[in-house]
Amino acid sequence: MRLTFLFLTLCFALPLHTQQNASLSGSVLDGQNGQPLAFATVVLSDETGSLLTGTVTDGKGNFRITAPLGAYVLEVEFIGFGPQQLPITLKDKDVMLPPISLYEAVESLEGVTIRGIQPAIEQRLDRKVVTIGEELAAQGATAIELMNNLPSVTIGSDGTISFRGSENVRILIDGKLSNLENPAEILQQIPTNTIHKIELITNPSAKYNPDGLNGMINIVLKKNARQGWSLVFGANSILAQRERYNSNIALTYRPNTTNITFEYSNGFGDQITDGNVNRFDLDSQQLTRNNNNRESHFLGLGVDFRPSEKTFLSLATQQNFQNAEYDGQKDVFFTTSPQNDFSLDDFLIRDDLTQSYNADFKWAIEGESHYLQLETNYNRYQSDKANDFIFSGNTTIPSYQELIDDARSIWTFNIDYRVPLGKDTSLELGGESRINRIENGYETNFDALENSNFIYDRDILSSYFTLTTALGPFQMNIGSRFEQYQVRAQLDQEFSASAGFNQNLISVFPSLFLGYQRHQDSPHSYQISFGRRIERPSFNQVNPIRQTTTPQILATGNMKLLPQFSNTLEANYRYAFTQGSLSMGLFYRYIQDEINRIGIFDQDDPNLLRLSYDNFDNNQAFGAEFGGSTSLTSWWRSSLNIELYTRQQRGLIAEEPVSVRNGLVNVKWTQNFRLSDSFSASLFAFHSGPQEILQYELKSNTYFNMGLRYRFAGGKGSLSLNFNDVLGSRRFAFRTFRTVFQEGKFLRDTQQLYVGLSYRMGGKLTSRSRRKRNSNIKADRFL
After folding, report:
1. I need a surface site. Which of 88, 119, 546, 717 has the fewest CB within 10 A?
2. Chain-centroid distance, C-alpha 369
3. DSSP strand E in 675-762: where?
4. Whole-prediction pTM
5. pLDDT tens digit string along 235-272?
């Protein structure tokens, strides 16, 4: 019967409320001073460990949960405090618990081990927090596959990450942004079984760096254990056109108040991308086959200890090594004039090294309510690229080579202070200094190109304040961030005059959050927010050195680009019921000095299109999100998310201004099934509608994933089997209609079989002690 329902589920439905329910209420206090803990997480699970429901405490530390009669486990957590687990039996209509006291611990509260088949989504005042359970369609090899199941997040077939329909988003790992231009490269090195939770921050407060028009996504890793030791091992393989393999190990040891963590993961294998482009104006067809062979190694080491009763010190380093060989073959055929056929073999060897070093000191003057925190971080990225372009056939471009040396570094210094101003009010103050350096060297033996050296330095000094308070049913957070932004750019070329660019900009970024819940028993909650943000140009957008070239296209950056700003107004509503929840969100964004593409034909060669970037007029964007999740039966859970986005884009194509209203519809549909205590299964479907961009139109995209999972050894081990892109329909298909008239599609080998094994020994693996990562993310754009 269960297997029949597994494949016959075709719609999303709300449950019938036939069970007899009871309410469970109580309060959470700081065990040291008796003060209430607002926003503590309260989770109710059944005796098998499957998540049933959850909530957060209000401004007075109170909570209330409604659930069917039965036996459960109640777990309470709060950042910086040890957890509490209580066996609960609901026999009566209403149960009032005595106050639950939490006591400060060296490590952040260990995350709840959730064995339910649906991730727990918690709506907080300024973010959504997704605790990663065993949702099977998301259990791919790395974090990049996992994220596609999250609300508002979309992973393109080429690995690009979109948040609310746009790629203007910051991706952070434990609150830190990598040096890499493309964050997907780091996410491909993070195994899914090492992720504790993911925070979706669509409209961050003034406490956060204002980078990213669409907000930020913070991935919190599992790194800490209870008293004793813990060892987690995982290995998986992906079978597609070529094979890929990944493995990881995480060891934690805490003999007393000192916590030591060690992590290692690797990945290697090939990935194939096939493409077919038909150009109508030239009556030609281009066939593309790219093979990307990648080997990566990640090494992490951290030590947390307590010099005194009220002080904490954390030291950590991460080392990422990545080697890649990219072999791209492009063959161009002309239907009516085959004598013009030509080919390009693009062979790239790339060696990358990313290093980070962190020191974090905290003085808990009065626990989590009154503290001073200091942090410094150094991040370094080094990339060496050797590229061979081998042309054959009827083309005037000779074969040539190029060498690119890319070096980037960041020094970050932070200070944060929090003080309570009353029972329900607190004030936070802080400052930050970011010192960013980039040097990019380019050498080539092609006479038409110049050896060049590009230096791009950027310094950011900022300070902030936020005031948080509770006024009856209202929760409010108001604040502002003040920033001085300095840029110094210098381009030196072999045969051309040097060029430079300087910028000094002072900006203010206010924010306001207001939440409302009529009373703690109310299933309805509301939230409205306003924030101002900035999108600084990426390195590819400012780098004037040639980046991409074909016989018809030459792409460069514009080092004189200015940042673009946005003012965002957002409203959210959530309705929680016993078996699930419904949510709805609306946002409006006003964009100033928008960065967009320009395309101009070369005066000497009319067939050559030069692509770059520039700032344009003001712009607007709108969006709506609808989601819901419900338990249709005790073994079947269903969820549906619908995302509607629209944004006007302006640009310059062939010296003509172009304006396009870009609409996008995304639908995500997930079915999770608990077939037995050991077996679970899932189905995942995704549909993205067509959308129009400045120069081209993206066609619709639909695909399906399915998976099966087996738990053994009392839940310590798991074996996953997933079949992704079952119909082989996931694609990047497009049609261009300005300057160049063509259509085509690219197919990555997304139709794949995934087999993964994970096993845990010792204590429970949980989230690492990184208070700042949970309270004040320090982000930067591409450095």
Report:
1. 717
2. 29
3. 679-688, 691-692, 696-698, 701-712, 717-724, 732-738, 740-748, 752-762
4. 0.75
5. 989 898 889 998 989 888 877 778 888 989 998 999 89
